[in-house]
Design brief:
CATH superfamily of the largest domain: Spore Coat Polysaccharide Biosynthesis Protein SpsA, Chain A
Strand order of the largest sheet: 3-2-1-4-7-6-8
Number of helices: 11
Distance between the termini: 22 Å
Number of domains: 2
Oligomer: single chain
Structural class: alpha/beta
């Protein structure tokens, strides 16, 4: 039995994100698949998704930090009892596009080891990225327990939950094979200014494309970087917006055109 888990809380992502993720996983795996969602609102989830209440973080949520610290509840020792999951479990973020068979994510390497995507924004550091990771569920509860003792101090020092996981896994983390997990902004989107003329490509050997740090796949489908931008802005309109932007260079670089491979894969 392949086991997969996701987390949904707050208003940013609706149930359609969970349903799409399940559908993509089901299309791209062979054999039985159990799909679990920890959430504060199970309304609208398709019946194939096993939904369970999202546990409390158990401490004050850090301030002044961009990290998705709520995801640390996945490391709690009570998750097997709550969900019935045991052994190696694959976690995938909701804003992720599965584009090819992912059976290898369930069988690769040692099932007792923690496997993460590499953080390609810092290629010279051995840092993990937790958009896609596999871990032995319930085996390292000290990761959450230690965080609860000093959440603000850890957040101030490391900024991101994935940096904390990288340094906290006993014996260290391992990475997925390099070609499997690709980052949309870093591996698919052409560099500036070529992105004004060329669409993002899908790397030949990619199995999963992550969108950590934006843009969101739903926005790329509409030809925009953020949900407060107009749909399908022309190149000229986007360039004109540079003169009104608070951070002109950042605005200039944040241009994207729709790509058909997201439409093909990111669907129920």
């Amino acid at each position: 039995m392949k086991q997969m888990i996701c987390v949904k809380w707050g208003q940013k992502y609706g149930p359609e994100y969970v349903n799409r993720l399940y559908a993509m996983a089901r299309r791209h795996t062979t054999g039985p698949l159990r799909f679990v969602c920890l959430t504060d609102d199970a309304n609208g989830l398709r019946p194939e998704v096993d939904a369970f209440p999202l546990p409390d973080l158990g401490c004050e949520h850090p301030q002044r930090s961009m990290g998705k610290w709520r995801k640390l509840v996945l490391w709690g020792g009570n998750i097997p009892e709550l969900t019935g999951l045991h052994g190696a479990v694959l976690f995938v973020d909701l804003d992720t596009v599965i584009v090819d068979n992912i059976d290898g994510y369930f069988t690769h390497g040692d099932p007792e080891q923690v496997y993460l995507a590499r953080n390609w924004s810092k290629p010279l550091h051995r840092l993990g990225q937790t958009s896609v990771f596999r871990y032995p569920v319930g085996r390292n509860p000290q990761i959450l327990e230690n965080f609860r003792r000093d959440p603000q101090g850890i957040a101030d020092r490391l900024r991101f939950e994935q940096h904390y996981i990288t340094e906290s896994v006993p014996g260290g983390i391992e990475f997925w094979p390099e070609d499997w997990t690709r980052h949309f902004r870093l591996h698919c989107l052409p560099p500036f200014p070529l992105r004004y003329f060329m669409p993002a490509h899908l790397p030949a050997k990619a199995r999963i494309v992550t969108f950590a740090g934006g843009p969101n796949p739903s926005d790329v489908q509409l030809g925009r970087w953020e949900d407060d931008q107009p749909e399908f802005p022309s190149r000229l309109e986007h360039l004109r917006g540079t003169f009104k932007a608070q951070r002109p260079l950042r605005h200039l670089r944040r241009f994207v055109v729709p790509v058909d491979w997201i439409d093909r894969h990111w669907r129920e």
